[in-house]
Design a protein that fits this description.
By secondary structure, the protein is of the alpha+beta class. It contains two helices and two strands, in the order H-E-H-E. It has a domain of 45 residues. The chain has a two-stranded antiparallel ribbon.
Length: 81
């Protein structure tokens, strides 16, 4: 199950979508925490999602650093993706 957490509680993502469109570029950075043994599944879902995003108007690029699959988190129950 995917759980969304806002990095800035004072500016939750849904509230940001309500503001005026000023036509400026937007950069999104997503952090994923994959349960142990499910890194490949998270990467696969990310790739599927990127196929949808890449055909959206105004979309510029998506990158998934290959090294991200190799990094370990301090939490032994999960891996950083």
């Amino acid at each position: 199950m995917i759980e969304f957490k806002d990095l800035a509680p004072s500016a939750p993502f849904p509230a940001q979508l309500q503001g005026p469109d000023d036509g400026q570029p937007v950069t999104l950075v997503n952090t994923f925490l994959a349960p142990e043994g499910q890194v490949d599944k998270v990467v696969d879902v990310w790739r599927q999602d990127s196929l949808i995003m890449k055909v959206q108007p105004g979309f510029a690029s998506a990158q998934f650093p290959p090294a991200a699959r190799q990094k370990a988190r301090p939490d032994p129950r999960s891996s950083a993706v």
